[in-house]
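Structure tokens please, single chain.
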Amino acid sequence: MKKRLLCSLLASLSFASHATIVEMQTSQGTIEINLFDQQTPKTVENFLSYVQDDSYNETVIHRSIDNFVIQGGGFTFSDTLDPITTKPAVINEPVFSNVKGTIAMAKLGGNPNSATSQWFFNMANNSGGSAALDTQNGGFTVFGQITAESQETLDKIVALVHCSEVPLVGITQAQCSDENVVISNENLVSIQSVVVLSDDPNSAQNLTPKENTLIDNVEVTPPQSSDSSGSMAWLLGALLLVVPRLKRAK
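Here you go.
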């Protein structure tokens, strides 16, 4: 099996070189994220391109699984979940491990280089075991780390009532199976804004990313072309079971 020489080279760089800090304001609280600019440059550039053109504003958290992930960055809500406009897919950069407190890119199954706009927060150590996110599909690119204080916001989202995998506010578990239930944007966990707080090079000094060592013996997959279908990213099937039951309030 080929070694992932690029990943080893990137991981060997001085980590205290640079880290952009972004602030994600959600309807459940604030999430502050330190981005790994130098170690995952293409992924950070891609993420920031969506931040800079306000693509993430007014999107919703469409997937939440306790002790696994919280996923967003792909949809707004009108009468149903509407995919946002995506940009060309970004090359995979599986340098760091999918441990709790990190943010990584979602992508299409069977295509390591298909990530576009969607991301997920790791709510547990998902590097190996049954999740195997450090090796599955070429490894999922971790491109940032949240602050300790931000974990509280993620925990609040997980604690909400979930209809299938969608976290909802003001909805009971019994209403999830009610075909007549009516929701509005206020029932969904929204991302109100994502802004850059700082690009100070010293902001990376106290971060403690864990290197992805499991990927070393995984076959390298050459970059592939990908179209806008990347907006329907990784493991969305369960979501489709609940979306038809959600109706916008008139």
